[in-house]
């Protein structure tokens, strides 16, 4: 396979081809996701929830993100690999943002970084881009700001917030971001943003009028049966399948069925 690049994504948008993106946090999963033909793998800070069991994305560290990212990089030969800058690794000043991004690029081998926010972090985005590191934006519901929002409900339903979001999206394009994620905003607004800028807009809970879709892999595989937002389509029910398989293993061990004659030396 030819490697997907930031350029490929911009061409996909220009050609009207939708972009597929999923998260991965480890080697084995990333190998499957990459082989299945995904365009972009996001090593999301959702690893904080999905991998580590934290309630929010705030606790995950830069070192932990680099560990996840390097595992994914070793697995994927076709997908573009984007890494989230975790909370606390870029908010205090542009120099810190650049330092964190350089660490991610050097120590994981990933291809791009993603940061949450618009005009507030424009100097940081500029600094990272000036170093030659591609940046993906992230607007709408930005989970690192959950304690400011108070809830994980739909963002930008009011005009003022919708207007700022559209302005931020235009700013991210102007700064030189190669794409941006829009999370949990009204479909109409997301479509308007996608039509207003030439870089790809990848949505999660942002409707079908955008240029691509992203989901958390564990959610779309149905490994987590406690999380059922309306935007989530489950392609498997791995929670049930795995529970059944593991239960069968327990039964087989207890009943002396496993291992059989053929399963030993
Ligand atoms: O961390 C993550 O998984 C994300 C996606 C939901 C866009 O940022
Ligand atoms: Na994230």
From TrEMBL:
It is found in: Cytoplasm. This is 3-methyl-2-oxobutanoate hydroxymethyltransferase. One of its GO terms (cellular component) is cytoplasm. Homodecamer; pentamer of dimers. Its main location: cytoplasm. Its EC number is 2.1.2.11. It is an enzyme of class 2 (transferase). 3-methyl-2-oxobutanoate binds at residues 45-46, 84, 114. The keyword Repeat does not apply. It comes from Flavobacterium microcysteis. Catalyzes the reversible reaction in which hydroxymethyl group from 5,10-methylenetetrahydrofolate is transferred onto alpha-ketoisovalerate to form ketopantoate. Keywords: Cytoplasm, Magnesium, Metal-binding, Methyltransferase, Pantothenate biosynthesis, Transferase. It comes from the Bacteria. Binds 1 Mg(2+) ion per subunit.
